Amino acid sequence: MNVLADNVFQMTNAELIGLAKNRFLDYQTQDKIALNSYRRAHMYLIENPGLCSTARDILWNKPGYVNKFDIISMGHYKDSPEKYEELYDNHAAAAFNRNSSYRVFRAFLGGFGYASIGYSRLPGPTATPTSVLDRLYHEHIKDGKTSGWGHDYYTTSMARAIAEHPNTSTETVVKLSCAHKDPEVRKYALKELGRRG
Question: What are residue 115's DSSP bridge partners?
Answer without folding.
Answer: 118
